[in-house]
Amino acid sequence: MEKLLKLYLSLLCILVAFSCKKDGDLSASKKRELAEKTYQKAIQFRQGSTPFQNGIAEAVAIDPTYEPGVYELSVADLKRGLPHKWLPQYTKAVVLDSLTRIPWRGYLYLWFYRDYKKAIADFNASDTLTPNFIDAPQGHSVDYWRGIAYLGLKNYNKSNAYFEKHITKETEDFGEDYVDITAFLYNGIAYYEAKNYEKALLNFNKQLEYSRNLSADAKYYKAQIFSIEGEKEKALQTINEAIIDFDKGYNNKRAYVETLRQIYSQDLTHLKTTIESQ
Amino acid sequence: MNRKNLLKVIGIIIVTIVLFISGIIGFGYYNYKEAYNTENKPYKKYIGYIDQDKALLNDKFKLCDNGFIQRTYNGAALDAYYINKKHFRDQVVNEFNNKNYSDSGYLNFRFLVNCEGNAGWFEIIEMNLDLEELKLNSTLVKDLFEFTSQSKHWNVLRYTKDNTPYNYYNYISYRIENGKITEIIP
Question: What distance in Å separates the CA atoms of residue A257 and residue A79, rounded to the nearest whole number?
Fold first, then answer.
């Protein structure tokens, strides 16, 4: 028994002594495995912190083709306002996985740089890269994102065309209640700007139908339509409801950056004053 | 096995377990410390770090709370604008867009706001519309720097738990096309 224990302790020492192996000797699959392990360890730390960045840099040094690491090195620069550092690093990820990273870059150009044309170019490129598949960076189809980008460009016809395509496809595949309510909102805004008030109202009502009748944005635009159509009482009632919804926090917004066509309290009070003075 | 040998075996087992646990804790601690060691590593500071010795307007105000900076993850964004972003945008567009500039590009300011709402420690990044570093018209940059660095535009931000104010990091990016501000981010 004693001998066995001594043998066990000796074996432990030998195992510890020979547990290290040089990274350079590893095969490609082992390198990938080690890079992934190093990456997983690094991402336990706060994004953009030194252990996070250095740990991922170590993973990428082990396997320079490890795309999640190459991409992740760019993210903190994006979020913290350093575009000149973000882009060169992100471009390295595009080289490694263009199918994912080109439509994804479109999403980033759209929201973090408000470069609608570059965003559309990337979403269009995804049509060519994956002709039989509609990409959905960050959970929405490229058609939805193009609808937003064209709204940013004030090209309302194209914006509506992409939103209609997106809504039709989502409705056919999963049902109308599955469509993100902001698709109805933005589709409505584009129709409103194109002065197609009938279709605008239809979309704002859809949004309200699927959001328990709570949306300062939909009501803000509806009030404008009622006002244009000379229905003062209805407009006043709707803008008052919009103000209540806004005060409760039911308005369109997004994380990190302002959303497109985000409304503020001044927009609502200004519209109310305008309606009252009609 | 007699009593003496039994105690010996139990002793060895206990020592092994203690060594094993100490080893795991020690290894974990070493890894944690080592992860923060930046010697011979490419990233010396966290992303977005502002070097307060080199930053512009670094001697007007003082940071509170031993200089600890909040909101470094992505800046204070919409929380930072005094009143709200529309209030800020209306003023800057009104003041800037009637000037006769013709440049296009992005102009970014990264800065700190102390617990009293005073803005300082500015870093400026000038870029073209392809996000490549490129100098913009120096008067244009000076104009927007003077506007952006006015403390009146920035909120005092506070911890929700006890309402005490804190220092925070923020950035603002102006997209300028043909001399006019077309977008403000975040």
Answer: 9
Interface test with B, best of A10, A47, A50, A52 (most B CBs within 10 A): A50
* Under 8 Å between Cβ of B137 and B101: yes
pLDDT above 60: residue A2 = no
| pLDDT at site B28 | 83
Reported pTM: 0.89
Q: How confident is the model at residue A131 (pLDDT cuts 50, 70, 90)?
A: confident
Q: For chain A, which residues lie within 8 Å of any Cβ of chain B, measuring from their own Cβ?
A: 1-2, 5, 9, 41-42, 45-51, 53-55, 57-58, 76-77, 79-84, 86-87, 112-115, 253, 256-258, 262, 264-267
Q: Report the pLDDT value the prediction gives residue A13, as an integer from 0 to 100.
A: 55
**Cβ neighbour number for residue A238 with a 10 Å cutoff:** 24
Which residues of chain B lie closer than 8 angstroms to A262, CB-CB? Answer: 85
Q: Is A270 helix (H, G, I), strand (E, B) or coil?
A: helix
Nearest to B36 among A1, A9, A50 (CB): A50
Q: Are A92 and A68 a contacting pair, CB within 8 Å? A: no
Residue A105: which of A147, A80, A95 has the closest Cα? A95
pLDDT score of A24: 63
Q: Could you say which residues of chain B have pLDDT below 50? A: none
Give the residue among A99, A100, A90 at the shortest CA–CA distance from A69. A90
ipTM, two decimals, is 0.88
Residues of B in contact with A45 (CB under 8 A): 35
